[in-house]
Amino acid sequence: MRLLVVEDEKGLAEALRRGLSNEGFVVDVVHDGVSGLWAASENPYDAVVLDLMLPRKNGYDVLRELRGRHVWAPVLMLTAKDGEYDQADAFDLGADDYLTKPFSFVVLVARLRALIRRGAPERPVVLEAGTLSLDPLTRKVMRGDAPVELTAREFGLLQYLMRRRDEVVSKAEILDNVWDPAFEGSDNVVEVYIGYLRRKIDAPFGLATLATVRGMGYRLSADRPPRRPGGR
């Protein structure tokens, strides 16, 4: 079983190489994202252990480009970032597992063996809500067969709403997860961008899938007919 470890902490990388080799794996190690992307693209690995915070190219971008190249080797993200939305982003991009530092080596080995047993089925990672689809890899949004052109901010907002499909999310949650943490403007910017999205994903198609839940926030649902005049 051949593994690739992409880890910039050289002491940890060497410890992983020794430990995994003792467990019967053949292990290649690289220390930056560009080298990791090249190695994983050029060699048939049974699994990849991929750090998130890497020099030259971060783990998110490595994973996005691997899946964009149809490299489906199972990927276990290994990182010090433990936020639930960090994990959600990784899974949205095609990660198969996620382990935070510090970690148990025994657990790491068990998870790698489980990933390798499951193998690497081809599975494009696309978020869907009825006829609306969003591909994080190609950054394409479609309503049925019709492409929807979005700005970078609109794309980020829609991706967050689709991850939370059918849930009510508040303006504060949206600001925390879509806008820069240093943003100090009014939360009314969320309402403005919700309006932009409605005009692109709903209005041209006679739909009303992005609803305002008065006093609580917003909810994105699968296709439904627009409300009667007077409602939002």
Write up this protein.
By secondary structure, the chain is an alpha/beta fold. The chain folds into 2 domains: 117 residues, Rossmann fold, CATH 3.40.50.2300; 94 residues, Arc Repressor Mutant, subunit A (Orthogonal Bundle), CATH 1.10.10. It is 40% helix and 20% strand. It contains 8 helices and 11 strands. A 5-stranded parallel β-sheet has the order 2-1-3-4-5, with helices on both faces. It has a 4-stranded antiparallel β-sheet with strand order 6-7-8-9, covered by helices on one side. The chain has a two-stranded antiparallel ribbon with strand order 10-11. α6 packs across α8. The longest helix is centred in the last third of the chain and has 15 residues. The N and C termini lie far apart (56 Å). The model has no long low-confidence stretch (mean pLDDT 86).
Major sheet attributes = 5 strands, parallel
Count of β-strands: 11
Give the overall shape: elongated
| Helix content estimate | 25-40%
The helix/strand class is alpha/beta
**CATH topology of the largest domain, anyone?**
Rossmann fold
Strand content: 15-25%
Biggest sheet: strand arrangement: 2-1-3-4-5
The N- and C-terminal alpha carbons lie at a distance of 56 Å
Mean pLDDT: 86
What's the SSE pattern? EHEHEHEHEHEEEEHHHEE
Counting DSSP H or I runs of 4 or more residues, the number of helices is 8
In the CATH hierarchy, the architecture of the largest domain is 3-Layer(aba) Sandwich
